[in-house]
Design a protein that fits this description.
Radius of gyration of chain B: 14 Å
Number of helices of chain A: 8
Number of domains of chain B: 1
Strand content of chain B: 5-15%
Order of helices and strands of chain B: EHEH
Structural class of chain B: alpha+beta
Number of domains of chain A: 1
Number of helices of chain B: 2
Largest interface: A-B, 21 and 18 residues
Strand order of the largest sheet of chain B: 1-2
Order of helices and strands of chain A: HEEEEHHHHEEEHHEHEEEEEEEE
Number of strands of chain A: 16
Oligomer: heterodimer
């Protein structure tokens, strides 16, 4: 894609700051909201295990084996992806950027453009795309498979709301199955067969400031008690808009204020931390972060952007970022997925 | 044959600005769910009648 520049000749003075579009921060990476599994080149094995212990009557004779010991592997390979575009720096020769080009006809590369647009906005866009795809990506084949499933209310069935949410909201760039897709449909189980995920399904509704406490309550009560009693507490992953809805809820003097505690940028519900991620509206996930994996070869791959002339005899340039990315969900039966 | 079709120009965004339902990914199941849950209005859709329904309606009108 070429540079699209609607510029004017600078006759007077250009306002110094370039007004950049406002972007979300990639909190998933910067705040480490999930578990990063680095150094996964290909086919990394995630092993899960469980067991049942059955107390039985003592006998002096032949005992009967009872209970189970299970362990299974899930093979995960992150998808190799890239961001690539070409541009002609000469396009900017008549713009404000000419001030930051070195003297000489050979030099049309603007350090200001590199700093603000490429290293700033475009690099942020790549980071956000990596985050959005982690949560929302879905291969078209997986979307079709989910669309073909029969919806039902049982935990083992895909929910009607879940199916609709997949059709409307999941896909993004479609290079791999992101985390929400993996939660709904995966082969991370003892049989290795791909089927509906074992998440705890909560049927929701359209969330607004008046019902947000009740809807968070549905998620909270669905959390298995052992999740709250063992180790680190889970996190409620919620759409960005909930920070505003929570503020609206807390502004109402009639509401009980201790349900949602807000301390600066820290939000919680009944003591469970809330983190805002690029989720579709009316969708929430409650899980321990050690159950959610961002699988990649090298996390810092997204920090590397190669920029050079396309060929030695050309003066147009390319930008290229290469990375691997995938999502994996573990301990599925302890994760609560709310879809309205 | 599908019963529901979105009226021309109607795009549903049932899960926020980044969600999209058009006639390409609309199913009857989704249409009925969204009407029931208030994420869409009946007015957003054209209700396509099946041949069987048409026959019945013709019969009733006589």
């Amino acid at each position: 894609m070429a540079i699209v520049s609607n510029s004017i000749d600078i006759l007077g003075v250009a306002v110094e700051p370039i007004i950049e579009e406002i972007l979300f921060q990639n909190n998933t990476i910067s705040k480490a909201l999930v578990t990063f599994e680095d150094d996964v080149k290909a086919e990394t094995i995630f092993t899960e295990a469980d067991a049942t212990a059955t107390m039985q009557a003592w006998t002096s004779g032949v005992p009967t084996s009872s209970g189970s010991l299970n362990s299974w592997d899930a093979k995960v390979t992150p998808e190799k992806v890239m961001f690539y575009q070409e541009f002609d720096p000469n396009t900017l020769r008549f713009s404000r950027y000419k001030r930051s080009m070195a003297p000489g006809a050979w030099n049309t590369f603007s350090t200001e453009f590199e700093r603000v647009v490429i290293g700033g906005i475009y690099a942020n866009r790549i980071s956000l795309s990596a985050e959005r795809n982690f949560w929302l990506s879905a291969k078209s084949a997986t979307k079709s498979t989910i669309a073909g499933l029969t919806a039902g209310t049982a935990q083992t069935s895909i929910g009607a709301e879940e199916k609709a949410m997949v059709a409307a909201s999941l896909g993004e760039n479609g290079q791999f199955d992101g985390l929400l897709t993996k939660i709904l449909y995966n082969n991370s189980r003892a049989s290795g067969t791909a089927q509906v995920g074992e998440r705890i399904k909560v049927v929701g509704t359209t969330i607004d400031a008046s019902n947000i406490k009740a809807e968070y309550g549905k998620v909270f009560t669905a959390i298995p008690a052992e999740v709250l009693q063992n180790g680190m507490k889970p996190i409620i992953y919620a759409p960005y808009s909930h920070s505003q809805l929570i503020a609206e809820f807390n502004n109402n003097v009639a509401n009980y204020k201790d349900a949602f505690l807000v301390d600066g940028d820290t939000y919680s519900y009944n003591g469970i931390k809330i983190e805002f991620v690029p989720f579709p509206e009316d969708v929430m996930l409650c899980a321990k972060k050690e159950h959610l994996f961002w699988v990649t070869d090298l996390q810092s791959d997204y920090n590397v952007m190669k920029m050079d002339y396309i060929a030695a005899n050309r003066e147009d340039m390319f930008l290229k970022t290469v990375a691997t990315e995938g999502a994996h969900v573990a301990n599925q039966k302890f994760n609560v997925l709310y879809v309205g | 044959m599908a019963k529901y079709k979105l009226k021309e120009g109607v795009i549903l965004q049932p899960y926020g600005v980044n969600s999209k339902i058009t006639n390409d990914n609309l199913t009857d199941e989704i249409a009925e769910l969204f009407i029931k849950k208030g994420k869409a209005s009946k007015n957003d859709f054209i209700l396509l009648k099946t041949k069987q329904n048409k026959k019945k309606q013709n019969g009733n009108s006589k």
